[in-house]
TrEMBL record:
NCBIfam families the UniProt entry points to: DgcN
Domain of life where this protein originates: Bacteria
Every D-glutamate N-acetyltransferase-like C-terminal domain range: 131-327
Stretches assigned to the D-glutamate N-acetyltransferase-like N-terminal domain: 42-124
UniProt xrefs under InterPro entries: DgcN-like (IPR011669), DgcN-like_C (IPR035086), DgcN-like_N (IPR035402), P-loop_NTPase (IPR027417)
Protein name: EBNA-1 nuclear protein
Length: 337
């Protein structure tokens, strides 16, 4: 899948920043590709890049309209269809990470064919995966897990990839969600894989490797989330993780989109070890990544210090304070062979 850059990021009329997390992820990690944003009235998200019309975006060289939103069920709202059709008519390709296939919408499919434009459904793959086998693979693997969805699992592994490479370590980010695929150019949107093949797909993206190579696998959902725990479990088993980092947002009391209470970090650690031992008996926690965006710096540092002392693990906000402490722990726990 070759998606033409640069992008015009479409945010629609999403109600908050989290609903546009795909767009934010691409803008944060591939800013050179994001020339402008297109928002509808009532949109509560803002990437901090120029608002452009389709005509202005063409003048600026944009080639693909990226639908940078997520929502329950991955649906394309009816009132967005006309905007997508207009983009195709204006000469843009369109890329989406939603569950619904762009080509399944008759008006979009017809416009793409008429104007010779490409439709990219990043969440869907043509690859055929085997079932997971759980056979021991060479190399090392780290998985991010969470107390909830949308707490920073992707940002943590991307920051770790950068930090580990700066230290001379052999590490690769393995994308398991649509935003990660946009950012890395490869990977599998695991939540679109048929359930029987989730663990096999994760084995496929993190195959047998050199003994000192780290695959840094992007986590999804939470083992405690009633909507997404099935995906999280398949990911855990397929990752065969040697190490995992728990990701957490400290200001939430309930999990996103449901009424269930947030589990504690300790509960996530215990359940991840218990279930992860099926494919790696030596799985262990090596750090805590906290999304402190809602806290001022003093409060953020206080939370991190408390969590580190409570669990005996390095705790940091990877975006705000870096990942040196997480890398230090990995180097100490897993010396070069």
């Amino acid at each position: 899948m070759q998606i033409a850059t640069p992008y015009l990021m479409f945010l629609g009329d999403v109600p908050d920043r989290l609903a546009a997390k795909t767009a934010y992820g691409i803008a944060d990690w591939r800013p050179e590709w994001c020339v402008g944003q297109m928002r509808l009235p009532g949109c509560a998200a803002d990437l901090g890049i120029p608002d452009l019309t389709l005509e202005e975006a063409r003048v600026e060289g944009c080639r693909t309209l990226v639908i940078g939103v997520v929502n329950a069920g991955g649906v394309l709202p009816e009132h967005w269809i006309a905007e997508v059709v207009a983009a195709l008519e204006a000469g843009f390709d369109v890329a989406s990470g939603l569950h619904v296939r762009l080509g399944a919408v008759p008006a979009i499919a017809e416009a793409a064919e008429k104007h010779g434009r490409q439709l990219h459904d990043v969440r869907h793959t043509t690859e055929t995966f085997p079932t997971g086998k759980g056979t021991k693979r060479r190399g090392r693997r780290l998985l991010t897990v969470g107390t909830d969805c949308s707490v920073g699992k992707k940002y943590t592994v991307l920051a770790l990839e950068r930090g580990m490479r700066e230290r001379g370590l052999d590490a690769d980010f393995c994308a398991t969600g649509q935003t990660g695929v946009f950012i890395s150019g490869r990977g599998v949107a695991i939540d679109a894989v048929v359930a029987d093949f989730i663990s096999g797909a994760v084995e496929w993206i993190s195959p047998d490797a050199a003994p000192n190579h780290w695959d840094l696998i992007e986590g999804q959902g939470s083992l405690y989330h009633p909507s997404f725990a099935g995906v999280s479990l398949g990911l855990l088993h397929g990752a065969q993780a040697d190490a995992f980092v728990v990701c957490h947002e400290p200001t939430r009391s309930t999990m996103r989109g449901v009424e269930h209470s947030l589990p504690t970090i300790g509960q996530v650690i215990d359940l991840t070890v218990q279930l992860g031992q099926l494919t790696n008996p030596n799985i262990r926690p090596t750090g805590i990544a906290v999304n402190t965006q809602a806290l001022d710096e003093d409060a953020a540092r206080s939370v991190l210090e408390k969590l580190s002392a409570e669990y005996g693990l390095p705790a940091t906000d990877p975006v705000r304070f870096g990942v040196d402490s997480l890398v230090d722990r990995l180097v100490a726990e897993f010396p070069a062979p």
